[in-house]
Write a structure and sequence with these properties.
The protein has 257 residues and is of the alpha/beta class. 51% of the residues lie in helices and 16% in strands. It contains 12 helices and 8 strands. It has helices at 26-39, 51-58, 61-68, 78-86, 96-110, 121-134, 153-163, 176-184, 200-205, 213-217, 221-228, 233-256, and strands at 12-16, 19-23, 44-49, 72-75, 113-118, 139-144, 167-171, 193-196. Strands 4-3-8-7-5-6 form a 6-stranded parallel sheet, sandwiched between helices. A two-stranded antiparallel ribbon has the order 1-2. Strand 7 (167-171), helix 8 and strand 8 form a beta-alpha-beta unit. The termini are far apart. Bound molecules: uridine-5'-diphosphate. Residues 118-120, 146-147, 171-174, 176, 198-199, 201-202 line the site of uridine-5'-diphosphate.
Amino acid sequence: MAVESVMMQRPIRVSVLNTPVDCVDMAAALRYVDDAIQNAKQPATILAVNPEKVYAIRDNAFLQDFFQRAGLLLPDGIGIVYALRLQGQRVARVAGADLMPMICALAAEKGYKIFIYGSSEAVNREAVERLNTRYPGIRIVGRSNGYRQSTEMDDLVAHINRSEAEILFVALGSPRQEQWMFEHLDRLSTVKVCQGIGGTLDTIVGTVKRAPLFMQRLHLEWLFRLFQQPSRAGRQLWLVRFIWEVARDRMRTVGRD
Ligand code: UDP
């Protein structure tokens, strides 16, 4: 599999319940992206860390390894941010869904080429149209929906390589997108940055709404999502377990000090 070049500047990497995460803010994340596009020899992966992933990783040796070797691990979930603050790290949330459009703005400014893979055909097409309108000058050089057969992967890889994209967004949800990256990144000849963006295209198009800003500011985006997609309630139970385990670890640490 492909990992980022060792020459690039990395933020400090710490861990929350044994899951690695980077102490990075939006500005540093964008500097990392720019640096990777200039200097990376292989695609640098950008992945989001949230409480659900903590448990997905714990039970999955492949994901553990893939996350350890990622280029950038975003403090995407507010639970992660609070856990880091309890460790004395001064971090703010960097949502993957916020970083993705910021990368698009950077790419529009610098002329970097983008390929967007994932989501349904309608969402993918509409998201590309909206990004083209929102960021004049953006160079989205290729796109594909996320429902291609495994037998079509060679074609997809060839399509991405022909497009000469430097930035690849993969929107297949977790852990599908990480698995795809693991299997295919080292066959991509021009991609320097690959971000797993989950359901971000759905929020760009509006088929899934993001929480209103006041809720985002109150760190209640998870609650909004729960009401909007009740079928995800099971996934959010991880948050309860996460809070309990972080609190228990903290009490043990304080007890030792
Ligand atoms: N998706 C896809 N191919 C698949 C399964 C899912 O492209 O085989 C897309 C789906 O259309 C949606 C995204 O992956 O746009 C999953 O979003 P979700 O919010 O579940 O991801 P998360 O951010 O929670 O990982």
